[in-house]
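Trying the structure run again after the queue cleared.
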Amino acid sequence: MVDETTLRIESTFEPGDDMIASSAEEKAMIAVISQGRVLTWSVKAPRISESNGEISSDSTQVDWSVPMAMAMQSPHTFTATVKVALPWYQPVLDLFK
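Done. C-alpha cells:
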C-alpha cells in the first residue's frame, strides 16, 4: 500500500528450473513449441496511474503481453500503481483501529 487510496501491485512470472533451456537444442525446441503463444496478464481498477504495461485509454485497465519463448527464458515482473475507491464508511472503520 502506497497510501490510503493507492496500491502498488507487483507480480513476477519466473520459469521453473525444468522450463529453462540450457542447450542450444533445447532453446530451439522451446522456440518452436512456444511460437505464436503469449503470456498475458491484466489488472482492472478504478484508476491506474502508473505501470510497466499498456494502460487503457480510460486508465481503468492495464495489460501485459510477453511472448512465451521470452517468458520461459527469464523472470518478468509486472507492476501497476492503482487508485482504489474506498467505501463511504471507511473513516468510521478507521476509528476502531
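Residues 54 and 63 are 5 Å apart (CA to CA). Worth checking whether this holds up in the mutant runs.
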